[in-house]
Write a structure and sequence with these properties.
This protein is α/β, with parallel strands linked by helices. It is 41% helix and 18% strand. The longest helix is centred in the last third of the chain and has 19 residues. It binds nicotinamide-adenine-dinucleotide.
């Protein structure tokens, strides 16, 4: 059904009519700050999506979102802003099919749980949970209520990520034995509020030390390596450097005597994690957000027949041609041959949207699962597994980089899924 939908929707005018005739998908949004507001705007571009309710503790942001929905759709959504737990009232509404959460991290699980318990689909921003208990609770609640929970991992839908997926599926790299990736993003501009205090992100980094944003690189890697679908992460080990970046940045921006320049931050500047899978493959995962550098997800795939480098956007495929040499090749000819069908059909539609179109696809896939009442393409097991790296790396770092066993959220289903 999903394939049919994709083909028709992406096909243009006919598709549009079919889409419009489809039953509306009604979504309540919790958290309409930078990310939530951006997602809201894309959702309103999708035909057949209605936003009857919006929630934010910040009344200005709430009003901005309400205004935008009213301007676009002619009807003002009901607002919820009576404190941090007001999302519970929103979740109880009877006119919603799904609840989407884009708050700061600590609320993702509570909002998703409230949604599923009220028989709504849950969509959560990354990470889905920040403790192992939260990850388990998501899985148990989804199983008990039979309501899907999808972490909105948009990087899984990036064009290069889906190209690589297609090349792996078609055997171009042979057996994939190792992958690497990292969230290497200088997010110091988000570290401090205008008054110099730590933002909610930095409050986490004041106390925790590990990989605090694992899902952007691990989502694609987990798919490439069939994690939860024939293999599973068995254990990990994690190491962090000293923490210097925030202090240096705050000293430059706020002055060397400012509290933010002298405070001790737990989070090391560079965190490196190694994961081993049950079937014997490995992953090297990075996290670097508080030192200067250009953005780089630093993907690498190593197979028995070839290799892919996301940093270089190049590929190497072994050949019997002796003139080839050990040289990287441009990706373009591979796009011509291996472009993922989803991207082939939607490149012009998706390309207009943020994160290289990934935001469009991830929302469209979620909305379509809700409309069809089907399982979400990223399910609760993926959401929990990818997010669990957050608490597991903290555990490993705190224990002097000891090996930490990875829980099997699927309860053995990974063997046959
Ligand atoms: N997938 C991506 O590419 C991507 C990009 C940016 C942010 N994010 C994620 O999106 C989330 C939000 O990030 P952001 O940059 O928009 O942060 P933000 O601070 O701009 O927005 C968060 C919003 O949530 C509201 N909020 C906080 N607690 C609430 C509660 N209990 N009830 C209702 N509203 C509440 C805040 O008032 C704020 O408006 C984070 O989890 C972040 O990791 C993902």
């Amino acid at each position: 059904m999903k394939q049919i939908y994709r083909r028709t929707f992406l096909g243009g005018a006919v598709a549009s009519a079919a889409w419009a005739a489809a039953r509306p998908v009604r979504i309540g949004i919790v958290g309409v700050g930078g990310r939530g507001y951006g997602l809201l705007r894309i959702l309103l571009d999708l035909e057949g999506v209605e936003i009857p309710a919006v929630c934010d503790i910040d009344t200005k942001r709430l009003a901005r979102a309400q205004d935008f929905v009213e301007k676009t759709r002619g009807k003002r959504p009901e607002g919820y802003s009576r404190g941090e737990e007001d999302f519970r009232r929103l979740a109880e509404r009877t006119d919603l099919d799904a609840v989407l959460c884009a708050t700061s991290w600590q609320w993702h699980t509570p909002v998703a749980l409230a949604a599923m318990r009220a028989s709504k689909y849950a969509a959560v921003e990354v990470p889905a949970g920040v403790t192992l208990e939260q990850c388990w609770e998501l899985v148990k609640t989804s199983e008990q209520t039979r309501m899907p929970c999808m972490m909105l991992e948009n990087v899984n839908y990036f064009r290069n990520v889906m190209l690589v997926q297609n090349m792996i599926d078609q055997g171009l790299f042979g057996e994939v034995v190792h992958c690497a990736g990292g969230y290497h993003h200088d997010t110091r501009f988000l570290a401090f509020l205008q008054n110099g205090e730590s933002s909610w992100r930095t409050k986490f980094a004041e106390k925790l030390n590990g990989n605090l944003y694992p899902t952007h690189p691990i989502g694609p890697i987990a798919r490439w390596m069939r994690i939860n679908h024939g293999d599973r992460f068995a254990r990990l080990v994690s190491m962090s450097t000293v923490s210097r970046g925030f202090n240096a940045y705050a000293a430059r921006k706020l002055g060397p005597a400012h509290e933010s320049a002298t405070r001790r931050y737990a989070q090391g500047d560079v965190n490196t994690t190694l994961l081993k899978t049950e079937r014997g493959y490995t992953v090297a995962l990075g996290y670097e957000c508080q030192t200067p550098r250009p953005y780089d997800l630093a993907f690498r795939v190593q197979g028995t027949k070839g290799s892919y480098s996301g940093t270089l956007e190049k590929i190497y495929v072994e050949s019997d041609d002796p003139t080839q040499g050990e040289k990287w090749s441009d990706l373009q000819p591979y796009y011509d041959k291996y472009e993922h069908p989803m991207w082939k059909q939607a490149v012009s539609a998706a390309g207009r949207y943020s994160h290289g179109g990934g935001d469009f696809f991830v929302l469209r896939d979620f909305v379509e699962a809700v409309r069809q009442r089907s399982q979400t393409p990223i399910d609760v097991y993926d959401s929990a597994t990818w997010s669990a790296i957050f608490p597991l790396t903290i555990q490993s770092v705190a224990a002097g980089s000891s090996t930490v066993e990875f829980p099997d959220f699927t309860g053995g289903k990974w063997r046959n899924a």
